[in-house]
Structure formats: structure tokens, C-alpha cells
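Researcher: Batch entry, complex prediction.
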Amino acid sequence: MGYRRDDGATHPPLLSPGYKSTVLRAPSQAPILLPHTLTEITGPLLGEGRVSAADADLTKHPDGEATGQRIIVHGQVRDSDGRPVPDTLVELWQANAGGRYLHKWDQHDTPLDPYFTGVGRALTDSTGRYRFVTIKPGAYPWGNHYNAWRPAHIHFSLFGRAFTQRLVTQMYFPDDPLFPHDPVFNSVPEAARSRLVSRFDLTNSVEAWALAFEFDIVLRGREQTPMEDAHA
Amino acid sequence: MSETPSQTVGPFLSIGLPWPDGPFVVLDADPNGFWVHGVVTDGAGEPVPDALVETWQADPDGRFDHPDDPRGAVSGFRGFGRCPTDDTGRYAIRTLKPGSVPGPGGAPQAPHIDVSVLARGLLHRVVTRIYFADHADANAADPVLLTVPDDRRATLIAVPDDEGYRFDIRLQGERETVFFDV
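Model: C-alpha cells for the complex:
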């Protein structure tokens, strides 16, 4: 069985001129349909021995605690048929509370936090669930246009179980006033944008300790017909 | 259920995605190992220093360490490589030559490696395939390569050199790499 094809209403077009870096990087030729052969319906099953429980808590550093608003980010990874995706690697990275990344190219005039690297890893459990403890990232300026600020976001990377399911995305926070002004967020077809916004979750917030945000992630599901045959 | 949309990795992907052993699909000591390497360039021919190249492939027998390989999973071959580009747009993956994998209708495919390229300015990964110049006969019969226009096939063929194979990735413009809709 192959995987579903992109429905054209989910992912951003590669050329989205409002986001200037796409102009010289988006391929100009139409992609060629790749049949889903064994190479595409398999994929790396990573993480065992690569992830420890501590990797899911970004607030703890051997020498101290990260500065900022502590939050819990959790959710379930499923495929578009609703099936949970267990034991899959979730990688995330983000800016600190002031909106600065621990990266040589990020010279935003706000301090680095010596106790915050902004990198997390986890494996989903047997029901596809993951949970991180981190700091709410700050918005930051990015020079795409005058007064360009990225809404606060956390980068997520997922593998699923097949090469076809690979996904890198960004999670946003509810009701961010920067949404209407951000060409990266708005590159996504309008009807699909809300899927990038986490849900404030009072139920899973922890009394006197941290607010929770829920972010469910849906990877591509299977086709309902047998594996496609390019020569059929 | 509706799929989650893709977003760019942004310029700071190297905080979160590279692993120390990422480029090593096989250990450096493997006597059959070689480098697949090249430069990622943009539409102006400039190197892309904030990209990540990921590879996925069969082992030398054409098998995958994966439960969905109907021939039975083999174990021990990671099959996956990832390497961020450096300041000059270069990447390198240490690996083995994959064996033949069945294609559509069971016809054999030429040895190939699936590639995802992620970068600032790419709102979604782009996917290509690496084939090998020294498998000319298999390439000529490969069911995927045959769907690629003749004059663009060369962009998918890695060329032998001192390190292993050279495979440049041109995101846009002259001799633009063929990308696939996966």
C-alpha cells in the first residue's frame, strides 16, 4: 500500500514571494511523480538509544534553570487515517524567552540564556503521545521586511514510519497578534493554518508550576487502494 | 483527519537537527564505505549554507531494516544519513552502495538513494534521488528514471571521484536538479 498524495490544500507553495528567501530557492520546474516503491514506504525508525528522558525537559541544565515562562507542550502524533504513530522520534528546537537562538548567526540584541540550549528530543509512546517541558519562546525580528517579527514558535521535526511521512513544521501559540503579518505562517493555505496553532490546555497545566499547550500532529496516511503502479 | 502543514526549518536548523554521527550511515572503518558529497546551490548559483541533506536507502542486498519490507526486515543497517551544509554549501554522507529494490510491478530499480533537502527558504522539503553513474545499464532500465525527461536525467546521477561520488543539488535555475512529488 502506498501513502496518500498531497491534496494541494495543506502545504505551502514552495514559491511564496512574501517570504523572500523562497525566491531563489524554490525549484522552478514542476516535480515529477515518484511512485511509492519500497524505498518510499519504508523509512528510518530512529531514536532507540538516541533519546533519554532528560532530552524532553529543556528547562533543566546541569548548572541551572532556564529563564522564562515554563510551559508543557504535549500532543499526539497520528496519521491522517487517525492511527497513532508510536515510538517515533520528535525533535524540536526554538529561541529562548527573549527570542534569541543559540546560533552564531543569530545576533538579535537580547541576551543568550546560559541555561537554555533550545533543543529537545522525545519518542512518542505506544499511543503516539509526546510531552516536553520548555520555556515559552519570544517573538524575534528577522529582517524579511520592515518591522518583520516572527510570531513565537517552536520548530518540530518528525519521521513517522515511512520516507513519505517526513514532516518539519512549526508550532505557534493561540491568538498571536503577529499572525496577520507573518509570511511564513501565511504561506500555508488559509483553511489549514489553524492546524499549526497549539491549544491552551488548562486541564494539563500544573498547579503553581506550568501552563500547558496541546499540539497534535497529523502525518500522511495510507492510500485506500493497493500500491500504485507507475505503468498501470 | 487533516494533515499538519509543513513549515521551513529556518536558518537555525543546525541547533536541533544534526547529530554527531548523522553523516555516517556506516562507520568510517567500513571497508566498502564511500562518501556521497556535493554542494547545494540556489537559483543564483550561490551556495546554500543553511540546508540539511537527509538520505534513506536499502542495504547492499536491497533490503530495509523496516517491518514493512515484505521480504522480512533485516537488522543492523541504519539506512539513514543526515548532514547540514557548511558555510560553503557542502554536505557529505558516508555510506554503502544500495542493492536493487523492486519497483512498480516488481520490476527492479537501479541502485538509488532517496534524498530530502530542507533549508531556510524551503517551506517544504524537496525530494530527489541519487543514482550512480557506474550502473549505466540499470539506470537505462530504471522505471523512475524513465519518467524523467532525457535532458534532465544527468542531474540525478552521482559521478565517481576520489572520495566516492559527487552529487550536487541545484535548487533552481540552470541544470536544476530533478525533484519528485512524493
